[in-house]
Amino acid sequence: MNNFKNVWIFAQVQRGRLSPTALELLTAGRKLADSLKEKLCAVLVGYHVEPFVKDLVEHGADVIYVCDAPLLENYVDDVYARVLADLVAQYKPNKFLLPATNLGRSLSAKTAVFVGTGLTADATEVTIHEPDGQLYATRPTFGGNLMATITCKRTRPEMCSLRPMSYEKALAKPGRTGEVIHFAFDAKRHVSAARFIEFIKSGAEGIDLAEAEIIVAGGRGVGKPEGFVLLQKLADRLGGAVAASRAAVDNGWIDYRYQIGLTGRTVKPKLYIACGISGQIQHMAGMSGSDVIVAINKDPQAPIMKAANFAVEGDLYEVIPAMLEELK
Amino acid sequence: MHIVACVKQTPKSDQVKVDPVTGCLLRSGAASAMNPFDEYALEEAVILKEQLGGKVSVITMGPPQAEAVLRDSVARGADEAFQLGDMAFAGSDTWSTSYALAKGIEKIDAEQKVDIVICGKQTNDSDTGHIGPQISAWLKWPNAAFVKRIICATENFVRVERLTEDGSEILEMPYPCVISVVKDINQPRVRSVKGRLAAKRVQITKWTADDIGADKSKLGVKNCPTNVVKSFVPKREVCSVTVSGVTAQERGAKLVALLKENNCL
Ligand SMILES: Cc1cc2nc3c(=O)[nH]c(=O)nc-3n(C[C@H](O)[C@H](O)[C@H](O)COP(=O)(O)OP(=O)(O)OC[C@H]3O[C@@H](n4cnc5c(N)ncnc54)[C@H](O)[C@@H]3O)c2cc1C
Ligand SMILES: Cc1cc2nc3c(=O)[nH]c(=O)nc-3n(C[C@H](O)[C@H](O)[C@H](O)COP(=O)(O)OP(=O)(O)OC[C@H]3O[C@@H](n4cnc5c(N)ncnc54)[C@H](O)[C@@H]3O)c2cc1C
Q1: Average pLDDT, 10 consecutive residues per value, chain A (328 residues)
Q2: What's the total number of domains in chain A?
Q3: Which residues in chain B are contacts of A118 at CB distance < 8 A?
Q4: What is the CATH number of the domain that holds A95?
Q5: Same-domain check for residues A174 and A30
Q6: Do A156 and A114 have their domain in common?
Q7: Is the predicted pLDDT of residue B26 greater than 70, yes or no?
Q8: Contacts for B71-74: CB closer than 8 Å, 24+ residues apart
Q9: Which of A160, A207, A273, A310 best tests the B interface by mutation, with the highest count of B CBs <10 A?
Q10: Domain boundaries in chain B?
Q11: If DSSP codes are grouped into helix, strand and coil, which group holds residue A124?
Q12: Fewest CB within 10 angstroms: A2, A31, A269, B114, which?
């Protein structure tokens, strides 16, 4: 096990864009690498991904493993997981962090079985346990009601997917240099019976929820689909994005992809404004990590009013227009 | 078409206790039911059967009382039920759990060829979402996760739409394959009277680790790669300010001022 060295991160690229999670993983990975006195390495898989090498190096990666091929342009589980498993087998990393994005959660799971090692899911904190150098990964479970710290004693690398926005993005140091290692794509091994057909861009304009710093969310209290137009107005004014509770989604007022919570998405914006949302545990599971929570609710007894940093009692149809007025 | 739906019995409430020493769940006491996400997996399996003919088998790995979710699955439209139960499985992590389920599915497949395995997106207890992709890794079958729609299923292939953060992706897979589904894929129906009767009568096939030819050195809390070393209830200390003002309009304006003051805008 001692010949497994260095901390790896998976730098996700989709549709020609480097995911911001890569920079968060570099922050988390840097801490681990420094406490182990090992190198921080990034894995870059895709097609035409070379331009991101410089980004990753400037943001802290010492070594970049690049696997670039036309057949890697789109994500197919088997193909990517095989590439990662082969990379791991050849270069033997000690720790391997991936993003807990949709792609990352599926990819990390499959790769862990191909590699034959343990995987912690959706961690929000990773540290090195000093006495033995093990990775301690802590993750919320049971909808955020219980934190569990997971270890992987006997196999290497210890793998972990890290929830987006759990760490700050690494800062760039222009001019920083690193080593690049090219890994050959093997069209015979790196295959799948699955075939990628096409990508359909979401009809929604504007900011991706996962990256929004400000989120204006609406619940059953919004009362009607047109209510989300008002919420969108506020979001636009603040440079944020709109989201929803399950009640609003189930009523058909807004698409499922905007649902926050246990059965929806997890977000961690700087500011989360919950409008007409009562704050049930399943909703809180998806947004309780926000830096600042605002609740706008008619009912002062609603649970969200106690969980919020700023609680505003009132009809959202009066409060939001007043906010817009004040923001002019 | 032979579809296998994977279902897990999970605690109904969010109030669950964990043994602080072993890190194992203390399941006794907590009311259990089918993992809510698995209702969508099972429903999608039943829809496929109705469209293409064939049958739905359900499989669970779990303690004796997990038999209840299998009977419930039959009430919701499944035809055959398989339970993997053995002390050797106890405390398995996702790597070991997916191994056991893959071995079970392999045995089902040997008896009657399996076309599609359907899992839920995640469970509501440990919610890793690993099991679907990992079953496919053990079986070396293709997979797709976060599936929000089965666009079409023919004799030879299935075309699915999976959710990404920026839209969705269409993939095509031959059989056999594994998919994990999100909840907007369908609206699970209520249990029928006929189904309830079938649930009472169904013969559940029970297999041990030996029955499925599983390598015991890959199973259970002692052998699985990961362990829970510590669990704790997160502290939520919120400094909550009630925004003052006589009218709702005043409070709205005050809120903006407060947010600016605190550098939130
Ligand atoms: C397994 C499971 C998974 C779930 N997953 C999720 C999930 O992912 N996300 C999620 O959100 N929920 C989820 N839920 C549902 C969750 O339990 C709640 O039912 C849901 O969050 C309630 O949504 P809400 O707060 O919008 O509605 P309600 O609870 O009905 O609250 C509406 C609130 O609006 C207020 N209000 C009404 N009118 C106005 C007005 N004009 N102005 C201001 N305030 C007003 C009311 O006082 C009330 O507090 C899940 C449930 C289960 C069982
Ligand atoms: C607090 C806590 C934290 C944990 N964290 C981790 C971790 O980070 N990494 C890890 O490897 N293990 C972890 N485990 C162990 C893990 O919970 C078990 O392996 C569990 O049996 C399967 O994982 P899951 O519930 O997350 O399933 P998921 O992968 O979330 O389930 C997805 C789907 O797979 C199917 N499925 C899942 N379990 C079964 C089953 N038993 N029978 C039939 N179908 C099933 C269902 O269709 C389900 O919808 C943790 C356990 C606890 C108690």
Answers
A1: 92 96 97 98 98 98 98 98 98 98 97 98 96 95 82 97 90 97 96 96 73 94 97 95 96 93 86 97 88 95 93 96 95
A2: 2
A3: 93, 95, 224-226
A4: 3.40.50.620
A5: yes
A6: yes
A7: no
A8: B71/B199, B71/B200, B71/B202, B71/B204, B72/B33, B72/B34, B72/B191, B72/B199, B73/B5, B73/B7, B73/B34, B73/B42, B74/B195, B74/B198, B74/B199, B74/B202
A9: A310
A10: 2-223, 235-265
A11: coil
A12: A2
Secondary structure (3-state) at B182:
coil
pLDDT for the residue B29? 57
Buried b (16+ CB within 10 A) or exposed e, A222-234: beeeebbebbbbb
Q: Are A78 and A161 members of one domain?
A: yes
Q: Is residue A195 part of a domain?
A: no
Residue showing tokens 């079953």: B135
Q: Domain check: are A101 and A166 in the same one?
A: yes
- A277: Cβ below 6 Å to ligand 1? yes
Q: What is the mean pLDDT of chain B?
A: 92
Q: Is the CB of A227 under 6 A from ligand 1?
A: no
Question: Is the CB–ligand 2 distance for residue B32 below 6 Å?
Answer: no
**Any CB–CB contact under 8 A between A189 and chain B?**
no
- Using a CB-CB cut-off of 8 Å, the residues of chain B touching A315 are 248
Burial per residue of A80-100, b for 16 or more beta-carbon CB atoms within 10 angstroms, e otherwise: bbbbbbbbbeebebbbbbbbb
Q: Model ipTM?
A: 0.90
> For B27-64, how does the pLDDT look when each residue is reduced to its tens digit (9 = 90+)?
555 678 999 999 999 999 999 999 999 999 999 999 99
Output the pLDDT for position A206. 62
| Arithmetic mean of pLDDT, B225-230 | 94
Residues A158 and A262 placed together within one structural domain of the fold: no
User: Which candidate from B225, B239, B247 shows the least CB-CB separation from A309?
Assistant: B239
- Residue A275 is part of which domain span? 214-327
Residue A231 inside a domain? The answer is yes
| Domain-embedded: residue A76 | yes
Mean pLDDT to the nearest integer, B180-189: 93
| The last residue of a domain, from among A133, A160, A182 | A182
- Please judge whether B143 and A306 are an interchain contact, meaning their C-beta atoms are less than 8 angstroms apart: no
Ligand 1 mutation pick, A215, A222, A251, A277, max ligand atoms within 8 A of CB: A277
Q: Which of A182, A204, A231 is the last residue of a domain?
A: A182
Whether pTM > 0.90 for this model: the answer is no
- Give me ligand 1 centre to Cα A279, in Å: 6
Nearest in space to A263 (alpha carbons), one of B6, B36, B186 = B36
Whichever domain contains A317, its CATH number is 3.40.50.1220
Residue A165 shares a structural domain with residue A300: no
Structural domain contains residue A279: yes
Of the options 3.40.50.620, 3.30.565.10, 3.40.50.970, 3.40.109.10, the CATH number for the domain spanning B2-223:
3.40.50.620
CB B129 within 8 A of CB A65: no
